[in-house]
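Input sequence (221 aa), recorded before submission:
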Amino acid sequence: MAGKQRGFTLVELLIAITLLSLVMVTGTFAYFQLASRWDKELGDFQQQAQTAKVVTQLEQVLKGIIPYVVRDKEGKPTFFFVGSESRLLAVTNNGLISGKPEVFRLVLQQQESHFQLVYQAIAMEKVILTSTEQSLDFSSTKVLLNRLQGADFNYYGWQSLTLKSNRIPGTKPSWFNNYRSQERGLTPEYIKLKIDDFTLFSQLDREPSHWKGHFSEGGML
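Predicted structure, token format:
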């Protein structure tokens, strides 16, 4: 007669359940660790991809800047360009909102411990830009980047039109934190925009004076 089949004792069953629970807890912990790491790396990649996309768009905007001629408060022809470390106001042929010529303003705004880069614009077909004193109502606003550690603009050009025209030995263009064409009589030759780990260089018109040609011919200079 075959012997009786012996089952698991209660102690053996408890030990098996405990071991199985340990395996499940260890596996779950490892899964969440890997998932958290993956989400972080994916988030970093998406952020870097978005930043790279915006930098490419900004490059087109800055490359499209033109030495647009307006009049100052005394009625004299000057260029529409105002740049500082945290903002830039100019006219571009490559508008970010419409894809057409726009008067635009790039502004670095502080948000608690971080910054955001904002693009404001109005299409040239909707405004008649004639003066540096003109009030502009920017109808379109777009936040380009959020949670930036910092960003700043720098401008490479001549200190003044007089200095460039005289060609005094030893003088040459240099970098400035602020560049107002109304004061200098010129637009800068290059713009450098640093956004966290990205640095963007854009070349502008190096001989903007030809834009004033019709003023010279009309005797308005």
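Checked by second reader. The helical segments are 10-63, 161-166, 181-184, 213-217.
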